[in-house]
Design a protein that fits this description.
With about 220 residues, the protein is of the alpha/beta class. It has a single domain, classed as Alpha-Beta Barrel (TIM Barrel), CATH 3.20.20. Helices cover about 15% and strands about 25% of the residues. Strands 3-1-2-4-5-6-7-8-9 form a 9-stranded mixed β-sheet. The model has no long low-confidence stretch (mean pLDDT about 95).
Length: about 220
């Protein structure tokens, strides 16, 4: 059984794949916060700005097996892209923490339907075989067990997860993503994020191993 909060077709808004069309499959549940506001202050990841609780979001639901969920995701990819022989469908598995549920049978089911499979994970759980793109986003002092990834995307600043801790990780890309205030609604002025964007910019200028990534999807107002 797979539990999905929501699934939708959009553009990837961050990191090395920014601007690429993708189906986002957001799994329910996380191992670093239960999603309840009353428990946020004591969570390992207390700054999360995503609703991943339940299965009541857009195209969310419970799926009995890998084939059912893969079919559901495939139906969200446009049937006529105009260049179907050159465009590889792409699914981004996110959460919550997707590796609580994403497994090899589901990856294989996505592949059978022609999809490349990406995942955005906090890195605290081993990654299943077969992934095409692995993005690790460490949170606080949670132990990262994944040693290699395509992309390390670090929300900045985090007092318990500063960039220096991860410079030796084997990644193709190193990104800093400015931390926003979870209490500020999207499309509203966020002085916390504005300040953190300046701090992240300054860090990248001083440490060019790191690149700045912004949440393009929020800037242009898409999911």
């Amino acid at each position: 059984m797979y539990r999905v909060k929501e699934a939708f077709y959009t553009l990837q808004g961050e990191g090395a794949q920014a601007g690429r069309a993708a189906v986002f499959c957001r799994f329910s549940k996380c191992n670093l916060w239960n999603g309840r506001e009353a428990d946020r202050a004591n969570a390992v990841c207390s700054f999360c700005d995503t609703d991943f609780v339940g299965t009541d979001g857009q195209n969310g639901g419970q799926f009995a097996d890998a084939a059912a969920l893969a079919d559901h995701v495939a139906a969200l990819w446009p049937s006529d892209t105009g260049t179907s022989d050159r465009v590889k469908p792409y699914v981004v598995c996110t959460g919550g923490e997707p590796l609580l549920q994403l497994d090899t049978p589901l990856i294989e089911a996505f592949h059978q339907r022609g999809f490349e499979v990406g995942v955005e994970t906090n890195g605290t759980l081993p990654a299943p075989a077969g992934l095409d793109w692995l993005c690790v986003s460490p949170k606080a002092d949670a132990k990262v067990v994944i040693e290699r990834c395509d992309e390390l995307k670090l929300v900045y600043p985090q007092s318990l997860a500063m960039p220096e801790r991860f410079t030796g990780m084997q990644a193709q890309h190193f990104f800093l993503s400015p931390m926003a205030s979870p209490a500020i609604p999207e499309q509203s002025a966020d002085p916390v994020k504005q300040s953190n964007t300046r701090k992240a910019t300054d860090y990248c200028l001083a440490h060019p191993q790191w690149r700045l990534t912004l949440q393009m999807h929020k800037i242009i107002g898409i999911d």
